[in-house]
Amino acid sequence: MATCTLACWRCRWLLPLLLGLAIILGIIALSGRGWLESESAPYRHQASLWESCTRWDNDFDWQCQSLMDYSWGRAAAATYLVGFVILVICFALAIIAFSVDILRFNFVRGIGGLLFVVAVFQIICLVIYPVKFTEDIHMRGFNMFSWAYGFGWASTIIVIGCAFFFCCLPNWEDEVLGNIKPAY
């Protein structure tokens, strides 16, 4: 029976793999048009991080308005983008940290600290957006925050989990590197 302990070479790549998943979820959140949608037919409203689109009665075309005209829209987009860029940098640093033997654990806690900064930026965006959107944008019918908004939260939750693991990982450096004999 094969077991995977912390010293296993495959297990070292779980954290960078999770960061890669957070990046994919962040890309979906940034590009998705499902931050807010009408709850039921007839679908009258659809919004992304960048624009809000409305379809009026007997009209098949969406009338879109940029959310970059609002200061909160620019702030929400900027904070999510800054967090996303830092997340990509952390992903690259994690790949380097787990690839190069000499540098492995010298800056892993720093990556964890940066990931907490990413989480703060993403949470700011994910709180500003629904509060100010419902305040400033006139909506008809029942609307819900939808799948792309959920992908943004999923990315944030993964980042928070990875931040804790990156901060705690140096405490078990010898176990991860296989420098300690396993106890059976």
UniProtKB/TrEMBL annotation:
Domain of life from the UniProt record: Eukaryota
KW Transit peptide (keyword) present: no
Intracellular or extracellular location(s): Cell junction, Desmosome; Cell membrane; Cytoplasm
GO BP term, pick one: apoptotic process
GO cellular component: cytoplasm; desmosome; plasma membrane
Keyword match Amino-acid biosynthesis: no
Broad class of the protein's primary localization: other
Gene3D superfamilies, per the entry: 1.20.140.150
UniProt membrane topology term: Multi-pass membrane protein
Pfam families: PMP22_Claudin
InterPro entries recorded: P53_induced, PMP22/EMP/MP20/Claudin
Keywords, sorted A to Z: Apoptosis, Cell adhesion, Cell junction, Cell membrane, Cytoplasm, Membrane, Transmembrane, Transmembrane helix
Annotated TM spans: 12-32, 77-98, 110-131, 151-172
Entry's family note: Belongs to the TMEM47 family.
Protein's UniProt name: p53 apoptosis effector related to PMP-22
